[in-house]
Amino acid sequence: MRKFKKFVTVGLTAAMTTAMSLVAMASTDVTIHFKNAAKWDNVGIWIYEGVGWTRNVTPKDACPAYHESEDPKIGSHPIWPGAKMEAEKNYDGWYTITVPFDDTSAGAVMIFNNLVADTEADTTTGGDAEDQAILEASGLVMDTKAKQQSPNQIVTPNLFVNGTKEFWCDFDGDIKGSTGKLVSTKPASYKKKASTKVDGLEAVGLSAKEIKLTWTKYSGATKYKVFYLNSKTKKYTSVGASTKTNYTVKKVGGAAIKKGQLYTFKVSAYDKAGKKLATSSEVKGVALDIPTIKSVANSKKGQVAVKVNTVKGASGYIIYRSSKQKSGYVAIGSTTKTSYTDKTVKKGKTYYYKVAAYKTSGKAKVSTQYSAKDYKKIKVTK
Fold this sequence. Notes:
Layout: H1 14-17, E1 28-35, E2 44-48, E3 65-68, E4 76-84, E5 86-87, E6 94-101, E7 108-112, H2 129-137, E8 153-155, E9 166-169, E10 179-181, E11 197-198, E12 202-205, E13 211-214, E14 223-229, E15 236-242, E16 246-249, E17 251-252, E18 255-256, E19 262-270, E20 276-280, E21 283-286, E22 293-298, E23 304-308, E24 316-322, E25 330-335, E26 339-342, E27 350-361, E28 364-367, E29 376-379
């Protein structure tokens, strides 16, 4: 393999080419976070000077370069030309990678935004062909515009002091060159970005004329707007607004809610200046008459037969049960008929039953609420 000759081309400082004492330790997974303030399309990482990779990039025998130190204690060390850092989903502008360090006798990390050129750079492609092949295999996008690599670098002396395994660098984005250090303390800028989604949106039929929407409070929101999907125009149209986290829909498009018809809703959150902050996922709702339990009876051993009063337009019914009259109701099953057998009861126990109606939408069950007052009580005797 060829010798490492990239020090001039990549603009490394004297501080980086000097071996740095690190506490030697066995292979350790280390996570590095990098703030991509310059908004690079592509972010990669170099490990060099005594730090080897064992996975995530390529096998060691495919390593394209070595650095031969004049210090016999350091000797020759593999230099891995980059692996792709992945954007962190919940931290705006941050990239991360977890790598296993084998040799921590000396080392440094460099974070870059494109391909690294060799001493005799190919100005057409931006780097040596062998390097490009390794970089491409690592998941980095090839630089076809011959961009000059940024000389920004992160120097990491004493990287493994106290067994630290996670580091951050809030890079200032100065692509003309700046040196920063990885820190082992989470910086203030490493904070979750605000969600762009209103969570927890649910729709439940209150009656044959009303559908109630509820959702989770969105931080910073002072107002919510409710929209329904117009089946003719295929566009969302405003239904109304609320300063609370609920809204009861009685009309859509100026017309009353139709019994048994499925409607699709979404909710957007706004701040006091009227700026939209976030929008929910879609949810479907249906208005139906609220069903009631017709009867409950002991049947076979360990079973209760439940019968439901028919609701016109319903696809089926969801059966709820509790050991208390006024609370604790949990769905225990559903049926497309007006009868249901509860096979999970215990002799001597008393149970209370309620029921909700539903309309099918694909594989989903779009449900009404269960009755507020109506229930049936039974003590299991078999």
